[in-house]
Amino acid sequence: MGGASNGEFSGKFLAAIEVGDVCSGIVAEVTPRGVSVTLDGFPARPLGFVGPLDLSWVRFSAAEVEVGGRITAEVTAIDLEQSRAWMSMAATENPELWAFLKSLRAGETLTGQIGSIESFGVFVALDEGPDHPVFPGVGFITMPQLSWRYFEAASDVVQVGQRVSCEFLQFDTTNGEARLSLRATQPDPFQTFAETTKVGQTLQGRVTKLVPFGAFVQVTDDIEGLVHLQELTWTPVEAPEVVVQVGDEITVVVTEIDREQRRLALSRRQASTALE
């Protein structure tokens, strides 16, 4: 009975809190996963939680947050099902940065220059807004958002110091970043291809990669499709290299164009029938 009431009260308490509110409380527990906080106004149990990346960027360590100490943090998300308020100490220490990021709207264009190229993405120093206190740029582009085209490394697409215009996707509250897309500002070659190509059409292509389930074939400068293993030949084979090798020029038939998933399915065996 008491547990049910406690859960009901915690839900009402959290429902009155909004994302962006600044809350204070007492640290109840410190673990490698983060810091649990007993929020002011609800002493029954800890409802606040600060993840490792949302801790103070000055201390940047849960080990320096002590049980019993008071903290102030900004609410970044409310989870009523789990009765938890996700909070960020970094937000309250960098109010100018947070205010700038919260003012951005999805779809707007931001400009800046490439500040750093990493294996996991690219940092962008934006023309507007404050600098980031930890990273070499407030903007960040993940690898998939760099280009519609296939590339091996981010440096194949951009260079440090290069000026770019990107579309703002979302405010990453975990890292205090503006998630950006460079490819969103460019035409999607797959959609152009889909508008001019039909299922059943015969194309010429070059085998670019072999995988256990088939072969990838480049049919234009920007577009690759997959020939599944069973579509390579009328005679069943256990591996694609039995039939084709990387670099081979082959004839294929388009069997499916998925514009939403940007997937192209091809058939070599149907092409052999079409040519007879």
Short note summarizing the structure:
With 276 residues, the chain is of the alpha+beta class. It is built from five helices and 15 strands. Strands 1-2-3-5-4 form a five-stranded mixed β-barrel.
- Report the total helices: 5
User: What is the H-and-E element order?
Assistant: HEEEEEHHEEEEEHEEEEEH
Averaged pLDDT, please? 91
CATH architecture of the largest domain: Beta Barrel
Q: What is the CATH superfamily of the largest domain? A: Nucleic acid-binding proteins
Q: What structural class do helix, strand and pairing data support?
A: alpha+beta
Beta percentage is 35-45%
Distance between the termini: 78 Å
The major β-sheet equals: 5 strands, mixed, barrel
What's the arrangement of strands in the largest beta sheet? Answer: 1-2-3-5-4
CATH topology category name of the largest domain = OB fold (Dihydrolipoamide Acetyltransferase, E2P)
CATH class of the largest domain, please? Mainly Beta
Shape: elongated
**Spans where pLDDT lies below 50 across 5 or more residues:** none
* SS elements, strand count: 15
Helix content: 10-25%
- Radius of gyration, whole Å: 26 Å
Structural domain count: 3
Keywords:
276 residues, alpha+beta, OB fold (Dihydrolipoamide Acetyltransferase, E2P), five-stranded mixed barrel, 38% strand, elongated
How would you portray this structure in words?
With 276 residues, the chain is of the alpha+beta class. The protein folds into three domains: 2-93, OB fold (Dihydrolipoamide Acetyltransferase, E2P), CATH 2.40.50.140; 95-185, OB fold (Dihydrolipoamide Acetyltransferase, E2P); 189-275, OB fold (Dihydrolipoamide Acetyltransferase, E2P). 16% of the residues lie in helices and 38% in strands. It is built from five helices and 15 strands. A hairpin with a 2-residue loop joins strand 6 and strand 7. The chain starts with a helix and ends with a helix.
